[in-house]
Write a structure and sequence with these properties.
single chain; about 350 residues; 11 helices; globular; KDD_N
């Protein structure tokens, strides 16, 4: 792929949108991943995708854990759309790779070919072309590939650190928005509930909740898997760890009510990777409380209408994958909590 001399692309990538016209890359149906590099873009030799949890779970279920079918599903989506955007969940993930080329007007002048980076923008808006898929890691949602991707002038990224395995850094950076937003939201809130606490976003959010509120507040972890509950207890990042199905409204309500003596949560962090957790989140939260929906499986019309239907006055926030300094905070969260880092190494370090 060459460089289009003197042709500057739109900083938000509108020049790569093929259909429909006059929309941004994320909601677009198809992107141009074939054209030469515009002079303000970055070209990446892609080595690994991190498919977001909700999307990968959906593909695993649809393909019944058949690795070859999952590979074919990903290849077909990328070939058809010029990006990785699951048509069922609408979500994507992120990638790591090596900087191959920078346009002469690419704004981040410190970036050089050969640098290993992780994109901090969704695959749903990243022009992507895959030559092949080498391996699918079923337990982590990471996929070893050979391909090319384009990063727009506005796209944030992180240079991969030397002190962490690449797969560990990728797993953490994929959900960097969650712990960063948790650190903001925790102030002044005493009772914190983390739903889906055993996943990577849940664990990192739990760590921030414990750091900010653990001494004077109450941190409650909800997780459906017994093994994950045991891991959370060993980490010591929650006052109570409750084995509860997050899709069961009454079970969640009864568990949180019992743990808080009927007071319910001041802040509920939803990090669950399956649908149907909107009403349980609302029931877990007190009137006047806040729910942070980081999960990509959440349907926000269901959440809004559900709160209205049960007469619950709660503030509901859409999870934003970006916050200033979120990559640095997330990696530092791992470094400052050796047991959590060891768990991430165990889960992702051998990928």
């Amino acid at each position: 792929m060459g460089v289009l001399d003197g042709q500057t692309g739109h900083p938000y990538g509108l020049h790569r949108v093929l259909a429909p016209e006059r929309v941004l890359p994320q909601p677009a149906w198809k992107l141009d991943a074939e054209s030469d590099l515009y002079d303000n873009e970055l070209l990446i030799a892609v080595e690994r995708l991190n498919i977001d949890s909700a999307s990968f779970m959906q593909m695993r279920e649809e393909c019944r854990d058949d690795v070859n079918k999952i590979k074919q599903c990903i290849l077909e989506i990328v070939a058809e759309r010029g990006k990785m955007q699951n048509p069922v969940t609408g979500s994507g993930g992120m990638l790591i790779g090596t900087v191959e080329k920078t346009g002469p007007r690419y704004p981040h002048r410190h970036v050089r070919p050969g640098m290993k980076i992780a994109t901090l923008v969704s695959l749903t808006l990243t022009p992507l072309k895959l030559e092949q898929i080498n391996r699918v890691h079923l337990e982590t949602g990471q996929v070893d590939v050979k391909g090319k991707a384009v990063l727009f002038a506005s796209g944030p990224f992180a240079i991969l650190p030397d002190d962490l395995p690449e797969a560990v850094a990728l797993a953490a950076l994929d959900v960097a928005g969650a712990p960063a937003q948790t650190a903001r939201l925790i102030r002044g809130r005493e009772r914190i509930v983390v739903m889906g606490a055993g996943g990577k976003s849940g664990l990192l959010s739990l760590c921030q909740a414990w750091k900010k509120a653990g001494t004077n507040g109450q941190v409650i972890a909800l997780e459906s898997r017994a093994e994950a509950c045991a891991e959370i207890r060993q980490l010591g990042l929650a006052h109570q760890v409750l084995e509860v199905d997050a899709t069961d409204p009454l079970a969640v309500y009864e568990a949180v009510s019992g743990a808080t003596a009927g007071e319910m949560a001041d802040l509920t962090l939803n990090c669950v990777n399956v649908p149907g957790t909107e009403l349980p989140s609302i029931l877990a939260t007190r009137d006047g409380g806040t729910i942070y929906f980081f999960s990509m499986a959440v349907r926000f019309t269901t959440a809004a209408l559900g709160a209205e239907g049960i007469g619950k006055d709660v503030q509901m926030m859409i999870g934003n994958g970006y916050a200033p300094g979120h990559a640095k905070l997330t990696l530092q969260t791992l470094r400052e909590c050796p047991p959590l880092l060891e768990l991430f190494r165990k889960r992702y370090g051998s990928c």
